[in-house]
């Protein structure tokens, strides 16, 4: 009996020691400061890789270390990916991603001759593609991982769901973030459909492989002014959403409300945008309502003549908004006005001024987006060619160097990310690409 029990006890002891060793290694790996160092540890030994590639470990690591900004995915055909450039701290990792990944999406099957996949969103290392050659409102979609060259094809919203009413419908597609505790191999896509009388959110889940109606609301219940804004200014309305704490926010400089889609409750609502300090904000340069949306100043630059405010992840229990204030005259100054609204359940929620952040001179700025606690700005330098009013042909042929900046909301530190060349009339729509090296995780699609 004793001789039989001894080997069993030995195996149990060895198992306990192995578990303790794995726990200690996991604690060590969680303290590695960058994904690059984690990648090197992953390649050192098979036992290290086994621990690091566990989903539970990756979730813990992401909680402790926010995913690095690697660059921007461009929705302009053929422009692909713009990696972060030195001296940005993510430059080496971004360059490695650009060299290894396929941001032409050649591995995703096409629907026919002349078909082109166009990025319409990016999140968690994935890119959402839409059929750029089909002019119907409800398009074919694909979710892909450019590094592993994996993809999932999505059908368009079926007509038995999509046919809500007669008339033109405008759509916007969004890739939902992976919620805490969710299986990272799964994904969800939202289609926002803007009808004449209502706004509908269709939801696709990779679990069911089908679309469903997740939320709907009439424009009349939101207010006629909001309806007119979103119908008349599609590129300034439904196409501009920032995601913060499980909700999508669409801000407008022409409206007194923020449109919100709460993905946890799957319902639409609004937030007052004309209370407290925001009343004063409307009187500052570039915020005047008598400046038409289609107005083109004499000193034209790529981007928007009036930049949208952006919602970012801020303090717990508060909405954080950044509004770009400045002018487009030679050597004009620009500032970011940081305001917040406490979400404390009270009926009266006043916007408070938190900070005014001056931006470096000799630039003409516009807002690009917000994600993961960062605000993104585009800018052109003052020494580039001025376009004289009345010379529209110059606008068709001129290209600018556009510098992209990221503002860390917690520290107010502004960092240059990269530079790209673009023309004036190309709509400014780049998508921030955050993520760990996808080779560290199991295939997500």
From TrEMBL:
Q: Which SUPFAM superfamilies does the UniProt record give? A: F-box domain
Superkingdom per UniProt:
Eukaryota
State the name under which the record lists this protein: F-box domain-containing protein
- Organism of provenance: Triticum aestivum
